Amino acid sequence: MANNNQAVVEIAQTASKFSSSIVLQADNKYIDVKSILGLFTTLVNTQSYELHVHGPDADAAKAAVSEVFAKHGLNVKVVAE
């Protein structure tokens, strides 16, 4: 299992570099990926995630955030809007 604290901080820091809206769907909850607190409460209990990204730098944001999830062994599916 990934070290969630490190994963959370790194995901939030990476997401914060982008101006796009980056939202994680976990079960039926939607969490702003730039919110460390939101991520902490979510990454603990959920096994699969969907990433919704909207904005001017969405492609770069999707790639960067997905990479951090993968690095920490978290399974995320980027949803094409």
Automatic annotation (TrEMBL):
Signal peptide annotation: none
InterPro entries: HPr-like, HPr-like_sf
Coiled-coil segments: none
Chain ranges of the HPr domain: 10-70
Superkingdom as given in the UniProt entry: Bacteria
Pfam family name, one: PTS-HPr
Protein name: HPr family phosphocarrier protein
Lineage start: Bacteria, Bacillati, Bacillota, Bacilli, Bacillales
